[in-house]
């Protein structure tokens, strides 16, 4: 799902024409390693959250609060300067060719994780039940990295997340 975001980075590796495929494979392996670390952390967090819900009856009876909290967290992060700083790093290319491709991929993956972790949590927490929501979130993450108006899109996505969190809390059946 995140591989389309790598196309521009993979094209920047073209200076290794003699080892083009192996360079790309190492870059992708490093990128995948950073996302795998995020996935493991998200899995542990999800397991802990399920244990908390099982032990806390009020939270068990009001699961929409968890959804609202996820949207609130994503909305706040989308507006944060940290998000834009990390997003800027995903747009630039590392020119240092002495760094091994797997390390470049790993570093690039860490910047991607840092800029998209909140929306990825929404994908895992909410989007897995709705394929259209999953596709929209993936498109937003890709477009905010690729478009010059990425910051505006990020703010719009953040506003939508904040608005949806308020709707969830104000209209419990929504």
TrEMBL record:
Keyword set, alphabetical order: Membrane, Transmembrane, Transmembrane helix
Pfam families cross-referenced by the UniProt entry: PpoB2
InterPro entries in the record: PpoB2-like
Domain of life of the organism encoding this protein: Bacteria
Keyword presence, rRNA processing: no
The UniProt record lists the keyword Transferase: no
Spans through the membrane: 24-46, 58-79, 117-140, 152-173
Name of this protein: DUF2182 domain-containing protein
